[in-house]
Design a protein that fits this description.
The complex is a heterodimer of chains A (about 650) and B (about 325). By secondary structure, chain A is mainly alpha-helical. In chain A, about 60% of the residues lie in helices and about 5% in strands. Chain A folds into two domains: about 475 residues, Cytochrome c oxidase-like, subunit I domain (Cytochrome C Oxidase, Chain A, Up-down Bundle), CATH 1.20.210.10; about 55 residues, no CATH class. Chain A is globular. Chain B starts with 13 loop residues before the first helix and ends with a helix. The chains are: A mainly alpha (about 650), B alpha+beta (about 325). Strand 2 of chain A pairs parallel with strand 1 of chain B, so a sheet runs across the interface.
Chain lengths: ~650, ~325
């Protein structure tokens, strides 16, 4: 075996013998080692999806309890403290532990498959990212389970979060948990960015990249830029709380508003980070059911990038009422109105795709098409809050609660459920039940709108958000009852989805490679795909490799039956950033305990910080150090050490 | 008060009146956009009349179709118009409503506490100064400047019929201004989440004709009348012994400003930051077990004997 760097890749045909060889190289070991050590992006992606979905159900149950409390005026189901912890935990769960990880899960699973690649760029980092996410989720929920859940809302304003007003462990769990979780998001983002630019198969030049990949790329760039801001904010808060620093405590010269800037510089781009990949899912999957390519693919890709860039300049629209100077308000107000333009491009591209195609109504299509409408409702209510004087009235009322649920459920949950109907056959080999799917869709759609459309009116009638109860005689009673009923109907819809997943996983119709006759590379692989994804590295000649005969977009034809075999070891291909020309062979790491151990070390470290036990902090640090040593110890198979001498010649390769 | 005291689709004062039409405009534009897109998606989806699952999908062959760019072009042109109008209108409304008026007819200080509003009126002389709680009296038809202070955490000052929100932030001096066009009571509410009793942190703005306002202001400067009956005297003793730890009744030995000034408690329509009507029954209930009514509020349970409670209530009822 010659080291990859000195070799010209062999080209060959897809054949059973090759597949057997690759399987032996790539398959995750059975048993505990494989379970804790796997670096297979599909396994990690599924873990992300399942974990995030379980957390969605937990957060949903929390929401139902909140809705029971608010079903009528002056109800006493929950104490104020219980209510405050529940609504804060609900926000934390949905925004941080569901909305982003679920998209990481889909991206993890789908990216190497649509890129014609064998894994993510950094498989061990990928595993680490999941373990840290799981650790942080457990850490953050541990507080809730011992009665010390977050109690200051998901954006956690100071000084209420300071120890002077919040002496329990609640905010320590939340602060440290957020820093912990930020590590997962950061390494995941770095991994996505490198994967995007370096591992697309030959021929997949930048103009041929599916929109879903653009969505996750822009989200990842945003995360890499803004996570430091929020991690810093929570670290400063923890210092204020534990060591009496004065970053945010006004009596001693600290600045409460500093928190809001640090948080929203992160918080607003984050909102885009949890919708852009989901919008990308719709941009890629909706056209499959319209039986034509997406209208204005390039413009939609550019709009995705434009939204993200503008998204960095709108954070102050969360702070219009804080007494900032008028000039700053008008700047951020304008930016917030302008950001509507690229979003409108995407919406019109979707609508045109439906009108200029021949739409086939499937359950997935229903979720995607209805998402367009929900997106617009969430978008225009956002546009209303962009206007400063209007926002002075709207902000912190239930209008904003309605708005953000249209954004998060409409532009995240609906596309994600649609994407599950779409990619479930790829992941499991079985199609989901369409009849149950229709029930699933209509219950979710009607329940959601019954619950949240009237909520706009509740807000316009002045109901403030984050109240554990409300008095009679404000005109909100009936509206709140309708919302509570709608939320339970919506929950039934989600339950039907769970039932459908379970039923279809066992008895669904067998899918085959490409059940939807879809155009992208993941549909050339068996369902579910083998551990190595592709027997030979595909070469693509257009945006729609599987539709080339029908569309006749390009001179040449894509090929996935003959290509580089890369079967001399655990190998993948690196290509150039823009044109995706082959650049070098990548030596991919074997399964490893190191990511799991590092995550455990970090969990110990953060637990020590929570309890301010220096010995535990020291132990956690040592564990991290040992895990890093194990991880980074130079290995011959990764060419981190000189190869054995007999493999060196000929050295001119 | 109207059936929906906190709604801001109608306004009752100059500042809110600049905002309400813009709110309506953006709302109508928004509803229209949703209807147009909703109808387009609905009709577009049903046009081809194909439905089913994977088989139905694959039975329709793929076609390249038109490039669809005119959709985006016209979509953007049509969207640009309301966006531009909103932008210009926003800037105009901002200019009209943002700044405090140059010559306010009245300047007062509002300090937000967990979970009540301290309202301080200043006059030309130190002796003209007094403070009250959760009820802000203003003269009708003139601009009033409100200086906002945060005592503990961030709260937000909001009287939807009169003006939008301004946060009260510790260590920062924000201002708001109000103007009521007609006499009346306008409900206000804290709108920045501030802890356990954020829900029950309301207040009222009472707009009165100028002479009524001046009469109210003069009356508020009076100290409390001495108790007359034995029960009232006993009540004052308990107030000075117990309530004085937090409250002030001017003219007595109760002089702490941790909680609301009670000198003219009976002049206020509501107690407990708008949570209860100011009736003898609810007053007694509030004194005895505030933690049942507002768990987490600063006022502790009193555990007064029945006699003491009725004495305190009897005395407080003399504080007109």
């Amino acid at each position: 075996m010659r080291p990859a760097a000195f070799r010209t890749p062999e080209v060959g045909d897809d054949n059973p013998e090759l597949r057997a060889r690759l399987h032996a190289i790539w398959a995750t070991e059975p048993g505990i080692k494989g379970w804790l050590g796997t670096t297979d992006h599909k396994e990690i992606g599924l873990r992300y999806i399942v974990t995030a979905f379980i957390l969605l159900l937990v957060g949903g149950i929390e929401a139902l309890v909140l809705r029971l409390q608010l079903a009528g005026p002056d109800l006493r189901l929950l104490t104020p403290d219980q209510y405050n912890q529940l609504f804060s935990t609900h926000g934390m769960t949905m925004i941080f532990l569901y909305a982003s990880p679920i998209l990481s899960g889909f991206s993890n699973y789908i990216w190497p498959l649509i890129f014609g690649s064998r894994d993510m760029a950094f498989p061990r980092l990928n595993a680490f990212s999941y373990w840290v996410y799981l650790g942080a989720a457990i850490f953050m929920y541990a507080g809730f389970l011992i009665g010390a859940g977050p109690n200051d809302g998901w954006f956690n304003y100071v000084p209420l979060a300071e120890r002077d007003f919040n002496p329990g462990l609640n905010e320590d769990f939340y602060s440290l948990g957020m820093i912990f979780l930020g590590i997962s998001t950061t390494v995941g983002a770095a991994n996505f960015i490198v994967t995007f630019f370096k591992t697309r198969c030959p021929g997949m030049s930048i103009n041929r990249v599916p929109i879903f990949a653009w969505g996750t790329l822009t989200a990842s760039v945003a995360n890499l830029v803004v996570i430091p801001s929020v991690s810093l904010a929570f670290f400063l808060l923890w210092m204020d709380r534990q060591f009496g620093t004065q970053f945010f405590r006004s009596p001693h010269g600290g600045q409460p508003l500093l928190w809001q800037h640090l948080f929203w510089i992160f918080g607003h781009p984050w909102v885009y980070a949890i919708v852009l990949p989901a919008m990308g899912m719709v941009s890629d999957a909706l056209p499959v059911f319209c039986r034509r390519p997406l209208v204005a693919h390039t413009l939609v890709a550019l709009a995705t990038v434009a939204v993200m860039i503008l998204g960095f300049g709108v954070w102050v629209h969360h702070m219009f009422a804080t007494g900032l100077p008028g000039l700053a308000l008008s700047f951020f107000s304008t930016a917030s109105i302008v950001i509507t333009v690229p979003s409108a491009v995407t919406v019109f591209a979707w609508v045109a795709t439906i009108w200029l195609g021949r739409p086939v109504i499937t359950t997935a299509f229903l979720f995607f098409a209805s998402m367009i409408v929900l997106f617009v409702i969430g978008g225009v209510s956002g546009f209303m809050t962009a206007s400063v004087p209007v926002d002075w009235q709207l902000t912190d009322t239930y209008f904003v609660v309605a708005h953000l649920h249209y954004v998060l459920i409409g532009i995240n949950v609906f596309p994600v459920v649609g994407a599950t109907y779409f990619w479930f056959p790829k992941m499991t080999g079985r199609l989901m039940d369409e009849r149950l799917g229709r029930w699933n869709f209509w219950t979710m759609f009607l329940g959601f709108n019954l619950g949240f459309l009237p909520m706009h009116l509740t807000g316009l009638l002045g109901m403030p958000r984050r109240v554990y109860t409300y008095p009679e005689g404000m005109g909100w009673d009936t509206l709140n009852l309708i919302t509570s009923i709608g939320s339970f109907l919506f929950a039934i819809g989600v339950l039907l989805f769970v039932i459908n997943c379970r039923k279809s996983y066992r008895t669904g119709a067998v899918a085959g490679h490409n059940p939807w006759d879809a155009p992208t590379l993941e549909w050339t692989t068996p369902s579910p795909p083998p551990p190595y994804n592709f027997a030979v590295i595909p070469t693509v000649a257009s945006r729609h490799p599987l539709w080339e005969d029908q569309l006749d977009e390009s001179e040449g034809r894509s090929s996935w039956l003959r290509g580089m075999t890369l079967d001399q070891g655990k190998e993948a291909l690196a290509t150039t950033a823009l044109d995706a020309d082959p650049e070098r062979i990548l030596e991919m790491p074997q399964d490893s305990y190191a990511p799991f151990l590092l995550a455990v070390g970090l969990a110990i470290l953060f637990t020590g910080m929570l309890l301010i036990k220096w010995i535990v902090i020291g132990l956690g640090g040592l564990a991290c150090f040992a895990a890093l040593l194990l991880w980074l110890w130079p290995r011959r198979d990764l060419r981190e050490r000189e190869p054995a001498p007999e493999l060196l010649e000929p050295a001119h390769g | 008060m109207s059936a929906t005291p906190l709604d801001y689709l109608t306004s009752a004062g100059a500042r809110a009146a600049h905002i309400a039409p813009l709110t309506w405009f953006t709302l109508i534009v928004s509803v229209l956009v949703c209807l147009v897109i909703g109808i387009l998606v609905w009709i577009g989806s049903r046009r081809f009349r194909a439905s089913g699952g994977a088989e139905a999908t694959t039975s329709v062959p793929v076609e390249r179709g038109a490039d669809g760019l005119p959709w985006i072009k016209w979509g953007l042109i049509l969207s640009a118009i309301p966006l531009f109008v909103t932008l210009v209108w926003t800037m105009a409304a901002l200019a009209q409503t943002a700044g405090p008026p140059a010559n306010p007819a009245l300047v007062l200080d509002v300090t937000s506490h967990q979970y009540w509003w301290e309202v301080t009126y200043n006059g030309a002389l130190p002796s003209d100064r007094f403070s009250t709680a959760n009820e802000i009296h203003i003269p009708v038809g003139v601009p009033v400047l409100v200086k906002l202070h945060g005592a503990d955490v961030i709260h937000s000052f909001w009287v939807p019929k009169l003006a939008g929100k301004t946060d009260t932030i510790p260590g920062q001096n924000n201002v708001a201004w109000l103007q009521a066009d007609a006499p009346g009571r306008y409900r206000g509410q804290c709108t920045e989440y501030c802890g356990l009793q954020h829900a029950k942190m309301a207040f009222e703005v009472v707009a009165e004709p100028r002479d009524a306002f001046e009469r109210w202001r003069a009356a508020q400067l009076h100290t409390a009348p001495p108790p007359v009956t034995d029960v009232e005297k006993k009540g004052l003793a308990v107030v000075e012994y117990r309530c004085s730890l937090c409250h002030a009744v001017r003219g007595t030995r109760a002089a702490s400003y941790y909680g609301p000034d009670l000198t003219h408690l009976m002049s206020r329509r509501l107690i407990a930051s708008g949570a209860l009507p100011n009736t003898p029954g609810s007053l007694a209930g509030w004194i005895q077990s505030p933690q049942q009514i507002k768990p987490g509020s600063g006022m502790p349970e009193q555990h007064l004997s029945g006699d003491d409670l009725s004495a305190v209530t009897a005395y407080l009822e003399t504080l007109k």
